[in-house]
Amino acid sequence: MRHQKRNRGRILFSGFRDPSHSKQGGYDWITRYGDPADTLLLSEVPLGKMSMKSKLIYLPLAILDIITRIRRRKYPITHLFYADVTVLKFIPYFKLKKHKTVASIHMDVDQRKFSKSFVWQLRKFDKIIVLSTCYAKRLKDKYGIDACFVPHGFNRPEFEKVEVRDNKGKTLDHNIINILTVGKMYRDFSLYERVVRKFAACSQICFHLVGAPNDIKDACHDLENVHIYNRLDDNEFYSLMSEADYCFLPLSFATANNALLESQYLRLPLILPEIPGVTDYAAPAPYNLFYKDEEQLVQMISGIRKPEKTEELERYVSRFAWENIYKELDKIYEDLQNE
Fold first, then answer.
1. Do 237 and 162 contact (CB within 8 A), yes or no?
2. 34: Cβ contacts below 8 Å, ≥ 6 apart
3. d(Cα 213, Cα 189) in Å, to the nearest integer?
4. Which of 58, 64, 69, 70 has its CA 20 to 30 Å from the CA of residue 217?
């Protein structure tokens, strides 16, 4: 179903689809905002279908940004929905009276190269959207940049239940406690490895690892209490998630997180660090479990029990359905056009 928007000019969305996300995940769902809107995706420009991991990816990204800068003059609003990846370094989007530019940023500005230059570029946009309240506060307090918090959207996963095996051919044992960890962005894998090794002799807890870097998979390869998975399709991934008991995300930084939203939709309680950004999306205790440090985390896992999965998590996360996010974007776009 397409979003029914208020009456306004056509919008141009510019960005890309992250292939690491499930069909239901990914911020590119913003492009389904509906008519009147057009999209310009990385995959549509020359060389745009190469891997995001390629050292040459900067070439199609540059082409995308150049085309976006040219086309933006045909639209009252252009929304760069992965601006911290797609915008050319050192070249700002200068403000135009009749053509407003919105930038969604996802990654920690302080951890990127040429951070001072990027902050300078951010000041040139008409509107900055961030995915956590703490990030908006940091940009304001540290750099004097006014950013608007609009949550990341996510719709209920749709999948067919299938049997899932790890890279050794083993399936999940429902008689023990199964703790799933997903993804690699801003994951503290040093903490993860220390924790799983502390429970190596515990036969009642098994860890499951999906989408981790190769060095972490190699480090945990010989641990009997860690099941490592090759790339899973959506049916396999969501089937595994629905069968696990907990989702453990050892995050070191957080804005939005697809795995966090996916887990709650599937009534899978999370084990999460008590850090800013997480609490914007995670249902509070007792529905999810939160730790402040490694010692508390180990104690928590030591006393963990199989949870009784309830619909509370699913009800909580429904507030982040994309249709609700589109309505928040409506107000931002309308205010920009009325300036």
1. no
2. 2, 3, 4, 5, 326
3. 9
4. 58
What is the spatial distance between Cα 238 and Cα 234, in angstroms, rounded to a whole number? 6
Q: Residue 92, by phi and psi: left (phi above 0), alpha (psi -120 to 50) or beta? A: beta
CA gap 22, 6 in Å, rounded: 30
- Decide if 11 contacts 33 (C-beta within 8 A): yes
Strand order in the sheet with 289-291: 226-229, 205-210, 177-182, 246-248, 270-273, 289-291
- Round to whole Å and give the CA distance between 216 and 232: 17
Helices 258-265 and 234-243 cross at an angle (nearest 10°) of 60
CA dist 295 → 133, 299, 301 (Å): 27, 6, 10
Cβ contacts of 336 within 8 Å, gap of 6 or more: 77, 100, 102, 126, 127
Taking 50 as the threshold, does the pLDDT of residue 274 lie above it? yes
Radius of gyration of the chain (CA): 21
Retrieve residue 191's tokens.
């903490």
Asked whether the whole model's pTM tops 0.90, one would answer no
Q: Residue 315's closest CA among 182, 156, 132, 180?
A: 156
Which residues lie across from 59 on neighbouring strands? none
Give the model confidence (pLDDT) of 170-189 as tens digits.
999 999 999 999 999 889 99
Distance, CA of 97 to CA of 18 (rounded, Å): 32
- Both tokens assigned to 251: 């995050």
